[in-house]
Amino acid sequence: MRFLYAVILVLVVSPVFAQEEAEKAPKTLPPPMINVDSLYREDQFYAGFTYNRLLNRPPGISQNKFSSGFTAGFQRDMPFNKARTWAFAPGLGVSYNKYFQNMLISKVDEVAQYNLVATGVQYQKNKFEQVLIDVPLELRWRTSVPESHKFWRIYSGIRVSYAVYSRSKYVDGNYNIKVADNQDFNRLQVGAYLVWGYNTWNFYAHYGITPFFDSSARLNGALVELNPLRLGLMFYVL
To answer: Which residues constitute the signal peptide according to the record (predicted)?
Structure first.
């Protein structure tokens, strides 16, 4: 009888201890749910740094020092295929560009004059600079997916710009000549550009279709136009 009582006691008590151990054991949680945005947009904000060159220069004009530029703005990414690898992106931004060269711009009776800095003259600074409001209109192709922001991209488009401020400045030991808002500058400028790269590092090239100066700008009788070429890096943020 004692043996029978022991067996019954084990059968009754064992499930109780088993239940307590099960309650004490850590519960396995299901893996977290990852929300995938199937309607994602890419590259909404941009910033770029450039090295600036002057093309289509009249004889005698040369560049010196490092001519640089900066551009930044916002673009509305608008995918138009199901995979969202193609998109159209209009935007709004601002640019600042400066160009060091040896063409001296001055004014006589409110009329801009253009001359080359005389050979042998030591000058500290000779540049012209512009601040522009930009409207980029861009076609985009990329290998993006919703789960990752690392992808290849090729973006190309037209940038329409309006010069809200321009100034030329010449400084040597005797003269400090400044000409602001030169009327010979083409305020409305159009350029074509290309961006290509992977993830963070993207190369940027911009060619100014519209020259800097209109037909009023003459250097020794030759038309001064000067088309900008800007080469640099472009960075994007969602």
So the answer is: 1-18
Measure the CA–CA gap between 97 and 177, rounded to whole angstroms: 19
Rg of the chain's alpha carbons, rounded to an integer?
33
Q: What are phi and psi of 4, to 5 degrees?
A: -65, -40
- Record the tokens describing residue 70, joined without a space: 């900066």
**Nearest one of 105, 94, 100 to 68, comparing CA atoms:** 100
User: Would you say the pTM of this structure is higher than 0.90?
Assistant: no
Q: Which domains does the chain have, with CATH numbers?
A: 43-237 (2.40.160)
Q: Return the amino acid letter for 22.
A: A
Q: How far apart are CA 207 and CA 8, in angstroms?
A: 93
Phi, psi dihedral angles at 60 (to 5 degrees): 100, -25
pLDDT in tens, 126-158: 999 999 999 999 999 999 888 777 899 999 999
**SS3 readout for 19-45:** HHHHHHCCCCCCCCCCCCCCCCCCCCE
pLDDT in tens, 6-60: 444 444 445 544 455 555 555 565 555 555 566 778 888 999 999 999 999 988 8
CB 71 within 8 A of CB 50: yes
State the pairing for strand pair 45-55/152-172: unpaired
- Residue partners of 30: CB distance under 8 A and separation at least 6: none
